[in-house]
Design brief:
By secondary structure, this protein is α/β, with parallel strands linked by helices. It contains four helices and seven strands, in the order E-E-E-H-E-H-E-H-E-E-H. Helix 2 links the parallel strand 4 and strand 5. Helix 1 runs parallel beside helix 4. The N and C termini lie far apart (45 Å).
Length: 180
């Protein structure tokens, strides 16, 4: 698949675009300092991704004081003009960045993702390829390194593992502060 990132190695600073399509940025721009950045890759035509976003929302609320969160909207997993499920979605394959941004906007409007940045992968699919993200995948980037690498979804897409990682990190930091 050409995945460039590996656990405990340097993260790839892929170019991404704001959900409105007006601003180019890079993945590292989404992290504030040395805070963990939780990356959630997917698209609205993946039913597992859409279902699991509810659990992701819980993570955002529980850990927003210590971590940053982002959804990176990638190519459609099951576009209506591709390998589609019946009654799943009416979104076709993205032919332009504007189409991808509109699909991401539609997804974001259907959910409360406050406290989370929603960004869009470029039409070259650089983030998707670098992170081996299709159809869905989770990562935690900290200090520009891969601190957690989730398995390829849908079978190995495990929000509870991200929760456990964040819990351990919170405990570790709390213990460190108590020792000083």
């Amino acid at each position: 698949m050409g995945k460039k990132v590996k656990l405990n190695n340097k993260a790839y600073n892929s170019p991404i675009v704001s959900i409105d399509g007006k601003r180019c940025q890079r993945i590292f721009d989404l992290a504030r300092g040395s805070r963990p950045l939780v990356l959630n890759f997917g698209s609205s035509t993946c039913p597992v991704f859409m279902k699991m976003l509810k659990r992701y929302q819980v993570l955002i609320k529980e850990f927003s004081e210590m971590a940053d969160f982002a959804v990176i909207y990638i190519e459609e997993a099951h576009p209506v003009d591709g390998w589609a499920f019946k009654n799943n979605s009416d979104i076709p394959k993205h032919r332009t960045l504007d189409e991808r941004c509109k699909a991401a906007q539609k997804m974001a409007k259907s959910l409360d993702l406050s406290g989370c940045t929603v960004a869009v992968d470029s039409m070259l699919n650089e983030a998707n390829i670098a992170y081996g993200a299709v159809p869905i995948r989770l990562y935690i980037v900290q200090d520009k390194k891969i601190a957690y690498e989730g398995g390829a979804g849908p079978m190995n897409y495990r929000v509870h593992e991200v929760n456990e990682w964040l819990q351990r990190d919170r405990t570790r930091k709390s213990l460190k502060e108590q020792n000083f």
